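Appendix B, record 7
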Amino acid sequence: MNPLIKTLAAVAACTVLATAVLAQSTVVPIDNEPAPKLIVEPPLPGPMAGGVVFIPYRVENLRILPVGGSAARNVSPRLGHLHVTVDDLPWAWADYGQSNTIILVGMPGGQHKVLIEVVDPEGNVFTKQTMTFHTPDKKVQP
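Structure tokens (predicted):
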């Protein structure tokens, strides 16, 4: 084998080995990571007059990524996504967007409840919070 090819192969092997060792030394075992935390702010008051609800939130100790299934259960740092349910409807949606804002459009006037759940890649709930708010009746334009 050509000496240049041997040298390049050795450098490549060392790079892969060093990367693996470095990655193992910088990743905290999943059991030692702090629990995910959800912080939800009240909806922004201005847009609610038009039936649009902006609910700011942030998640700590978890990366929101479009990854699912049991293979992602032990990835560190921890992965997950949100499940959002409005007014106790029998369905919810999954949010993988990392937008830090839930936006609800066309909300009718009245009292509403939004359940926000932080879940693991398999849908098991880490933590949750319910936000209750009142949207004003839309003004009828003459």
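Remarks on this record: The first helix runs from residue 3 to 26. The helical segments are 3-26, 45-48.
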